[in-house]
From TrEMBL:
PROSITE patterns: TOPO_IA_1, TOPO_IA_2, TOPRIM
Family note: Belongs to the type IA topoisomerase family.
Gene that encodes the chain: TOP3B
CDD domains: TOP1Ac, TOPRIM_TopoIA_TopoIII
Source species of the chain: Esox lucius (Northern pike)
Name of the protein this chain belongs to: DNA topoisomerase
CC per GO annotation: nucleus
Residue stretches of biased makeup (Basic residues): 807-819
Chain intervals for the UniProt region annotation (Disordered): 376-396, 794-825
InterPro entries: Topo_IA, Topo_IA_2, Topo_IA_AS, Topo_IA_cen, Topo_IA_cen_sub1, Topo_IA_cen_sub2, Topo_IA_cen_sub3, Topo_IA_core_domain
Record keywords: DNA-binding, Isomerase, Topoisomerase
GO BP, sorted A to Z: DNA recombination; DNA repair; DNA topological change
Amino acid sequence: MKTVLMVAEKPSLAQSIAKILSKGSCSSRKGLNGACSVHEYMGTFSGQSMRFKMTSVCGHVMSLDFIGKYNNWDKVDPAELFSKAPTEKKEANPKLNMVKFLQVEAKGCDYVVLWLDCDKEGENICFEVLDAIEPVMTRPYGGEKTVYRAKFSSITDTDIWAAMSKLGEPNRNEALSVDARQELDLRIGCAFTRFQTKYFQGKYGNLDSSLISFGPCQTPTLGFCVERHDKIQSFKPETYWVIQAKVFKGKDSPLTLDWDRVRVFDREVGQMFVNITKTSKEAKVESVSKKEKAKQRPLALNTVEMLRVASSSLGMGPQHTMQIAERLYTQGYISYPRTETNHYHDNFDLKGTLKQQANNPFWAQEVKALLSEGLNRPRKGADAGDHPPITPMRAASEGELGGYGGTWKLAWEQACLYYQLWVDQICFTEVMPWLGIPVEEAMPVCERGDVFSVEEVKLVERQTCPPDYLTEADLITLMEKHGIGTDASIPVHINNISQRNYVTVESGRKLKPTNLGIVLVHGYYKTDAELVLPTIRSAVEKQLNLIAQGKANYQQVLQHTLDIFKRKFHYFFDSIASMDELMEASFSPIAATGKPLSRCGKCHRFMKYIQAKPSRLHCAGCDETYSLPQNGAIKLYKELRCPLDEFELVLWTSGSRGKSYPLCPYCFSNPPFRDMKKGMGCNECTHPSCQHSLNSLGIAQCVECEAGVLVLDPNSGPKWKMACNKCNVMVHFFEQAHRVQVALESCETCEASLVAVDFNKTRSPLPDGETQHSGCVFCDPVFQDLVELKHATMRHPSMTRGGGARRGGRGRGRGRREKKPKDKMAALAAYFV
DNA sequence: GCAAGGTC
């Protein structure tokens, strides 16, 4: 029997589509990567009975990068990234093993139907899938067609069946346009980012950003924020005048009237009007009109709108909102949270969805009333053909969801919004008071011809106010309007400009550009304003669309656009001095930053420690900068020196739970031995005899990770510990010991290095009042109760075994240690060979 | 270490 393989873009869609096509009768299993499922059923394909296997990828299978050697920032000229540097496709997420998974499932299949999302990215993924599976699929007889594309516009029975009955082919041109975008984004983004970063970080010490990045989406996003900042800065308040009149009727309290001309900027004109009205003691109602102020019912919720609402009325950032929405989705409270669609299909079960909320204590009454009165159709929105609008699927209570920051708030908000779809103003403000119309002062009833007495008429002087900083919600709207980013990437771009220290999030989720953000954008304005204009994205996309529509050649468009940006890059490179003038005015030269910390091994003068990101050491004598680990504290380590290069060692301490190790500032960037990599401290150094090295302080193979070694932290007493030099495993031992040393001998049972411990007489936990003992941390019965496993950071629930309770070391470490523990003599021997 | 785009 023949088999048809079908592939969707994500696991949730594979499931929904399989359910529809199998009429609910498919059997499901997990794939080998644990993330994707395979749904199998019997059906007919081109008139024959066949086996169907429906599965999915998780977004892109591959992603584009430069080949390895072009990722060395020190050796590659960024200009080479425009043409010379070759690119390659790498698996987008190696942990998912997607290529292998697809091949296992595709082996022996006769046909493939591609159910990827119906957009250009989806078309591109079609070919990524085909590249992976075609080599393992059964070869067709003659020229039989075996590859099909399903085009669907919604996940409904009718649409999915319709798509299945008229299968087409994947569109190569659309896929190519995405290939071109990827290559352009990579080459342009990386070239500018590397050049800027190296140039400015080599000169200034207080930029406080680990990266001075540039990108066709993030830079215009920053541009919007700075543009508003400039408007605020250049704002000159203007004086204007308004006429204010107070009138009253009988015993009613006076009514303040607004002027229908609003304001004048010429005082004399205003005064003239006041003079005219001053002659009258009475005011007659000329006409009466009522303005309809009832708010329109909202549209059904799509991703971007959810982000806007969450930011403006819940104070939740877009990235956070997406995380919470994802969680609500996986727990079954809401439908798929990434959708552009804000319109419900005619056959969507609106009533059933509402019934789910009928027992929720917050709005049970309103919901029941609605159900009995009957529903209006929600307002008509746009159907992007991806997923239904974000919909509450299950009633939630605060008790269930209160635990995670904002989860309950977001669930509640979404249910409210769903509820609003049918309800008019008066009704939905009962559940969402903040959407109500502000209660205006009671208007006295008046009719045409009514006469009021004039209490006073005066000219009031006022000043125009500057605009405020952009809110996140404003920014999202601007990005959407200019086509910067997508619903899924908008939160990422906003997060980026904040992480890079270009903007800060102020109260009310207003985005205020930092000095760095302002100087960058002003610098682009000065050299090449196009780099920061929102049109930079749309101009490129216009070119890409030509490829997608088959109107232009992929290679030609790519070359042409790359040429333009290559020229822009060279121009930017040549005019960097004019941007640098702005930098000079705002930031301090690297030599004038930081405080003296440790001595340079070359000139033996003090180097300065620069704490601002990226934290580093700078030697003014040699004019050299040495990188340091980020996210931790650095201090001098007892003025001890590296025996290889005489640089003074520094001690790095992590913020959480105090993992620490010494490192040599020179070796950190220039690994001294062949088996070492950049970014290693003394706890990974294979120096054969240095007292700070892995060789001297390493005790045993890590109890959890494959490659790590537990290394004594010589600086940790009196709360002694050893920590894995690769993962976050930490073993606390011998608390209050006076001295802990790693002995030369190894344990006969497990080959861990023996440890010698000295206690003070009064505090010794050793039997018989002994103060010294030497033995294996894992096997020695005397040490059994003095060893406790912990983690530097509790990241994963599965890693909390031990849970802080005191546990014996015996057996546990050994049981997990399948690999041969580190043999110090063998390591030494290897080094000398 | 870099972009933007999918998605977990």
